[in-house]
Amino acid sequence: MSAESTVRPYIGLSTGVVAVSFAAIFIRWADAPPLAIAAYRLTIASVLLAPVVLLTARHELRSLSWPDFRLALLSGAFLGFHFAFWITSLDYTSVASSVVFVTTGPLWVGLGAHLFTDDQLSRGIVAGLIIAVLGGIIIGYGDIGIGSTELLGDLLAIAGAVMVAGYLLIGRTLRPKVSLITYIFLTYGAAALELLIIAILTHQSFTGYTANTYLMFLLLAVAPQLVGHSLFNWALRYLSATYVSVTIMGEPIGSTLLAWFLLNEPPTVFKVIGGALLLAGIWIATREEQKAITEPAAMEL
């Protein structure tokens, strides 16, 4: 891939990071249970996509092979669990801790690529894992001083990161051969169905919320989901899952700053130090992947 051809993915990824940074804020402003929020987010996004798919991608949807169809549904299952875990974590821990932990996704993407492909864990990835774990321990230690519920929130956010890694790895496999609109419709739709079933089984309410909460549902579906996640999925056609996932490192910065100004939730010293180490670990672990993309591009110039 030439340097020029990566300009558009970079712009798309940057825009996606800005869009997803608002997710934690909208969730905090929504007066509803976490699973209901997640179900509404994916369901509204899927409903908005449906007419576009029917008008532009009906033939591709019908001709999609069964293995690819199953992989898209599996990707949606990972995405659904990601939101279920992560949004629930915001009920137990701060926006800063939750978003930093959920953005450990690149580490899990790298580990998944090592386990399920021929890729080997380099020294850089191992060093990144060690530094990131140290950062997580520091954040967790700070949360112990606050209360046990924060630790539960941190663990839920980590589970969300593992789920999003599976989602991105499958996306990298499918996106080069499946159009964006078809892929996100199947993925978001499968995630929506999964979350609706979970919400029903856990007796979540879908009605009786304030007008502001319904507005937050809509904003979550449009900005973080249809704009943010769709831009990430678009970029997966051109860049590796590890490289795309590293851009999520910008989300904690955006979300923490927004939480500081909009929610009056300043980051603690533990979260600043631990978060910096954790993000440094992610950067080190993904540096090899970045070299794999940038060095061939430089040779083509």
Description:
The protein has 301 residues and is mainly alpha-helical. It has one domain (4-300). It contains 14 helices and no strands. The chain is globular, with a radius of gyration of 19 Å. The chain starts with 6 loop residues before the first helix and ends with a helix. The model is unreliable at 297-301 (pLDDT under 50).
Descriptive labels:
14 helices, mainly alpha, 301 residues
Question: Gist?
Answer:
This protein is mainly α.
Task: Please specify the SSE layout and strand pairing.
Elements: H1 7-21, H2 23-29, H3 34-56, H4 58-63, H5 66-89, H6 95-102, H7 105-116, H8 123-144, H9 148-174, H10 180-201, H11 211-235, H12 241-246, H13 250-262, H14 269-300
Helix pairs in contact: 1-11, 1-13, 2-11, 3-5, 3-10, 3-11, 5-9, 5-10, 6-9, 6-13, 6-14, 7-9, 8-14
Class computed from helices, strands and strand pairing: mainly alpha
Radius of gyration: 19 Å
Q: How many beta-strand runs?
A: 0
Tell me the overall shape.
Answer: globular
What's the total helix number?
A: 14
Spatial gap, N to C terminus: 10 Å
How are helices and strands ordered from N to C?
Answer: HHHHHHHHHHHHHH
What does the largest sheet look like? Answer: none
**Uncertain residue ranges:** 297-301
**Share of helix, binned:** over 70%
Count of separate structural domains: 1
Beta-strand content: under 5%
Kindly report the average pLDDT value: 82
